[in-house]
Amino acid sequence: MQPIVEVKNLKKSYKKRKTKEYITAVNDISFTVNKGEILGLLGPNGAGKTTTIKMICGLVKPDSGSISINGIDNQSKRLQAQEHISAVLEGNRNLYWRLTVRENLEYFAGNRGKSRKEVSTQIDDLLEQFNLKNKEKEMVNRLSRGMQQKLAIAVALLAGSEVILLDEPTLGLDIETGYEVRELLREIVRTQKKTIIITSHDMDVIQDLCERTVIINSGKIVTNDYVENLMKLFDVRAYSIKLDGHLSEEQHHLLLEKFPQLVYTPDTYQSVLEVDLTQSQEMYDLFDILKLEQIPVDTIDRKTVNFEQVFMKIVKGESEDAIPERA
Fold first, then answer.
1. Please, what CATH class does the domain formed by 3-84+161-232 belong to?
2. Separation of alpha carbons 234 and 307, rounded Å
3. How many CA atoms within 13 Å lie on the side-chain side of 22?
4. Calpha distance 199→247 (Å, rounded)
């Protein structure tokens, strides 16, 4: 696949206020975004994700390294490069609240050098596509958060850029509107062949939409891989076992020795074991320990691993197999 965004050896440090100490926010990261894909750019708070986003958008200058968008260097030819990317920032900061829905679309199209007449038909199409036609004369500050978010994405599309960066696109949305936004993004990629970069703390959105994810932690890339591969990597056999009784101290000790991540929750008459098994043989080892006190097993349930659990395991460094060079 052909890359449309290329980030190479990017570094950025900030000087602490009132001191001479520097903090490294981004430490030599490199990755590409391919044409027509939806990429998740993730990281915990303070990981360097926001700084990376700002550098891609041309809002912050890197100390070293390079960013190219559609083959154009984002530093030496910044204005030309930025013509190929639009950003929808968290909190709908790229909308004017005292303008109507249509006026916002016309205003931002004008910023890109397009006349009102030139974009009139395209605006009508976007209003229909985003179910905003009946709100076109409504002031933006009177819209629901979901409608504001849809309008912000429509504004980004109107720019005609090949790459769209979405910062927390479903934050604060109700379930129905969140799913509507997801479907709109899928449609945009399918019909318009756009490239989308998503940052989000909602791992369901990442699992549902993204083909690949880049995860940053402590200023470095810890994983660059397809979501499907990461799900398989952490697809351990996770079980919840309900017992009609309690473990003895010896059993509890033996189980923790064998399964350090085991969680034991005793109740009045029953207890629950939650354990991840990486090999089928370990199930026999577990039951050998349970047999010591002949505790009856009430139920055994297989638990499903989701991408939020995968993300947390990667950030905590629980797998050395999740490496940046995968993709």
1. alpha beta
2. 9
3. 9
4. 44
Q: Where are the alpha helices (DSSP H) in 212-298?
A: 227-233, 249-258, 281-290
- Show the tokens assigned to 311: 């993300």
Q: What is the pLDDT of residue 319?
A: 58
CATH class assigned to 236-303: alpha beta
Residue 267, CB-side half-sphere exposure with 13 Å CA sphere: 8
Strands 3-15 and 64-69: antiparallel
Mean pLDDT of the chain: 89
Highest-confidence segment of 87-91, 249-253, 319-323: 249-253
Please write the tens of the pLDDT for every residue from 182-226: 999 999 999 999 999 999 888 999 999 999 999 999 999 999 999
Distances (CA, A) of 124 to 116, 118, 131, 135, 154: 12, 12, 11, 12, 11
E runs forming strands in the chain: 3-15, 22-34, 38-42, 64-69, 72-73, 85-88, 163-167, 195-199, 212-217, 220-226, 237-243, 263-266, 271-277, 297-303
Residues of the chain with CATH 3.30.70.260: 236-303
User: CA angle 128-134-137, nearest 5°?
Assistant: 110
Positive or negative CA dihedral for 185, 190, 196, 200? Answer: positive
Q: How far apart are CA 300 and CA 243, in angstroms?
A: 9
Contact 43, 216 (CB under 8 A): yes
The DSSP-derived string for 124-184 is HHHHHHTT-GGGTTSBGGGS-HHHHHHHHHHHHHHTT-SEEEEESTTTT--HHHHHHHHHH
Q: What is the pTM of this model?
A: 0.79
pLDDT in the model for residue 323: 47
